[in-house]
Amino acid sequence: MAKQILKRLGIGVFILFVFSLILFALMRLQPDDFVQQRWGALAMQNGMGDEFLDEIRRMIGLYGPFFQGYFRWLGNMLRGDMGYSLLEMGRPVTQVITEHMWLSFIMSLIALIISVSIAIPMGIFAATKQYSKFDYTTTALVMMGISLPAFFFAGLLIYIFAVQLGWFNPALGFGDAHMAGVSNASRFFIRAWHLVLPITVMVVLSIGGLMRYTRTNTLEVLRSDFIRTARAKGLSEGAVIYKHAFKNTAVPLATMMAGILPGLFVGSMIIEQIFGLPGVGQLGFRALQSGDIPLVMGYNMFIATLAVLGILLSDIMYVIVDPRIRMN
Q: Could you please report the per-residue DSSP string of 44-111?
């Protein structure tokens, strides 16, 4: 197994190398006057002139031969130097991403735990009660949840619970306006209260797909021959479902690991933007808007690295869930 893990790591490194090459090539496709359009006014206001713009062009690799600039940027990145963020006043990109990613991680982790705790039992129960009222009701609710756009559902919750009822007013921000002169415990509860609505949106939007996925796979397993054999042996329905059926249902669920890891750290860009939360998703959106190329490149490499690690964890989970599977 260790040999196969090393092989997958080698493939992952190659994928990241190709991705970084494409990312750098897309950055070099920016016209030369891009820096002038984005940062020319700031340079004139501070009296820095063309020297400041030339330094930005040099820093983001718009000067010099392509491969010379690429390998210089790649070497710096491998040493942990992703450049300096223009949006964050010259702070290191690595430091900026590290500061913003933990809020996104906490939100996504809580939403994931709640979603899994609700969706998997509901999916299994709906499969065992196929065509029942519970099955039809949950299916209808799941379809409604999947169909709701994030911005619409978030706006609806803000209007009901913040504007009309006033329970979460103000709904935007992270509670910093109420932090003056409060204890650490009060500070914690204020910020936790501001995360209720965003986490609710994330749970409702993610629970539907996971529940349908669990229901579909459970139905397929329940039609298998070994399930009929287990029932013919006289095993209880609970033992058949949770000991035999769910164990085999968990195998395709392990593929979710490929998307869980990057999702936990990257967060939801739309939700963080709507609720004004300083997560890494909103950071990436602001970087795109402002043309902060070093931060955009660092953000995308961060996502790509997590995605490759997620796929590796998915392969390992296959073997853990079902030892009969080998990483071939």
A: HHTT-HHHHHHHHHHHTT-SS-HHHHHHHHHHHHHTT---B-TTTTT-BHHHHHHHHHHHHHHHHHHH
The DSSP bridge partners found for residue 63 are none
Separation of CA 203 from chain center: 13
Confidence of residue 19 (pLDDT cuts 50, 70, 90): very high
Any idea how long the chain is? 328
Q: Which pLDDT score is estimated for 178?
A: 58
Q: Please name the residue that has the structure tokens 């739309």.
A: 270
CA distance 153 to 268: 14
Give the integer Cα–Cα distance in Å for 42 and 112: 42
Separation CA 100–CA 114 (nearest Å) = 23
Residue type, 134: F
Write the CB contacts of 248 (distance below 8 Å, at least 6 apart in sequence): 221, 224, 322
pLDDT digits (tens, 9 = 90+) for 134-176: 888 888 888 887 888 888 888 899 999 988 888 887 778 776 6
Nearest to 187 by CA among 201, 171, 176: 176
Neighbours of 250 (CB within 10 A): 17
**How far apart are the C-alpha atoms of 21 and 15, rounded to whole Å?**
10
CA 60, CA 31: separation in Å to the nearest integer?
13
pLDDT at 22: 92
pLDDT at 38: 63
Is residue 205 a contact partner of residue 145, using CB atoms and an 8 Å limit?
A: yes
Query: Residue 17's pLDDT is what?
Result: 92
Question: How many CB atoms neighbour CB 97 within 10 A?
Answer: 21
CA distances from 109 to 116, 123, 175, 180, 207 (A): 11, 20, 20, 28, 14
pLDDT of residue 39: 64
Mean pLDDT of 91-96: 88
